[in-house]
């Protein structure tokens, strides 16, 4: 009887952890492997970087996780010139990992380690490239 109760608590805890991810999140900070390897930018490089960022689109990077394990994002895909309008995907949360799945085969195409998950913030690290880190905040939907 105790084993059944313990098993039920583990299942409920795992399910609620996945429920915390559900919602709309906006990226506020991203770091790449290249940024970590470079020296700190000079004042001129920092000014140039700010000017280039001002010319990029004002579209915020937003990702939405639905309760049915589907989601949408407007990230710029590798190899594409424009950001995706709203690219759809499947996902699964297990333990401290977020798996992005192929829509047809449902095979894992990318894995992120969940470093921080609270009601208001989410920090993800790409498992295959641990130097890539993304900080997101929950966006309230009206």
Explain what the structure shows.
The protein is α+β, with helices and mostly antiparallel strands and 142 residues long. Helix content is 27%, strand content 37%. It has helices spanning 2-21, 33-37, 43-55, and strands spanning 23-31, 62-65, 70-73, 87-94, 97-101, 108-117, 121-126, 133-139.
Summarize the structure.
Helices cover 27% and strands 37% of the residues. With 142 residues, the protein is of the alpha+beta class. It has a single domain (2-139), classed as Lipocalin (Beta Barrel).
List keywords for this structure.
single chain; 142 residues; alpha+beta; Lipocalin; 8-stranded antiparallel beta barrel; 3 helices; 8 strands; disordered N terminus
User: Number of folding domains?
Assistant: 1
Average pLDDT across residues? 78
Q: What's the helix count?
A: 3
Structural class: alpha+beta
Write the CATH fold name: Lipocalin
SSE string: HEHHEEEEEEE
Q: Can you tell me the CATH class? A: Mainly Beta
- What low-confidence regions span 5 or more consecutive residues with pLDDT below 50? 1-16
* Beta strand %: 35-45%
List the helices and strands and how they pair.
Blueprint: H1 2-21, E1 23-31, H2 33-37, H3 43-55, E2 62-65, E3 70-73, E4 87-94, E5 97-101, E6 108-117, E7 121-126, E8 133-139
Antiparallel strand pairs: 1-2, 1-8, 2-3, 3-4, 4-5, 5-6, 6-7, 7-8
